[in-house]
Amino acid sequence: MGEINRSPYESTITLTVNGDTHLFRLGEGCHEVSPSHTLAFTLRERLGLTGTKISCDRGACGCCTVMMDGKAVLSCMLLTVECEEKVISTIEGLGDPITGSIDPIQQSFIDHTAFQCGFCTPGIIMSTKALLTENPSPTRGEVQEALAGNFCRCNSHYHVLDAVMAVTRKGG
Q1: Domain boundaries, the chain
Q2: Single pTM value for the model
Q3: Is 42 helix (H, G, I), strand (E, B) or coil?
Q4: 12-92 matches 104-170 in fold
Q5: GO molecular-function annotation terms (predicted)?
Q6: CATH superfamily of 12-92
Q7: How far apart are CA 110 and CA 94, in angstroms?
Q8: pLDDT band at 154 (very low <50, low <70, confident <90, very high)
Q9: Superfamily of domain 104-170
Q10: Chain segment 11-57, per-residue pLDDT in tens
Q11: Is the dihedral of CA 85, 91, 94, 96 positive or negative?
């Protein structure tokens, strides 16, 4: 990641998450964001967006995957201060806020029982969303490659692949 060119006198950070703008003071207080906080921590502990999961906290499992500027990123590996002026999307932001309907990817996961415990599911769905944003008609191999960084300990990967391929056929 690039260096953050922040003046020592700057004391706030602005994040855009799921279309909403959030202003945080930088600091160590309970309602502040520390320069050492990861994006995953800030999403969960400061914004209450608990759909983003923290599992390995080392970038190895994909549970913390969110989208930043349309690309899948591991939020446990990014400092929050690195995300200023970026557009962040989490699992909570996928549905249609007007109709309340869920994203076609989420519906396909339900239709294909592409989850068991569900802990890894938000990260897998966000990786899928990033893939389909870039490539709406991936091959099964491209889906496997895009999801290679997401691990499911319940072993529902076959159902996940079926769900993703089904949503690509529907054009969702």
Answers
A1: 12-92, 104-170
A2: 0.89
A3: helix
A4: no
A5: 2 iron, 2 sulfur cluster binding; metal ion binding; oxidoreductase activity
A6: Beta-grasp domain (3.10.20.30)
A7: 15
A8: confident
A9: [2Fe-2S]-binding domain (1.10.150.120)
A10: 999 999 999 999 999 999 888 999 999 999 999 999 999 999 999 99
A11: negative
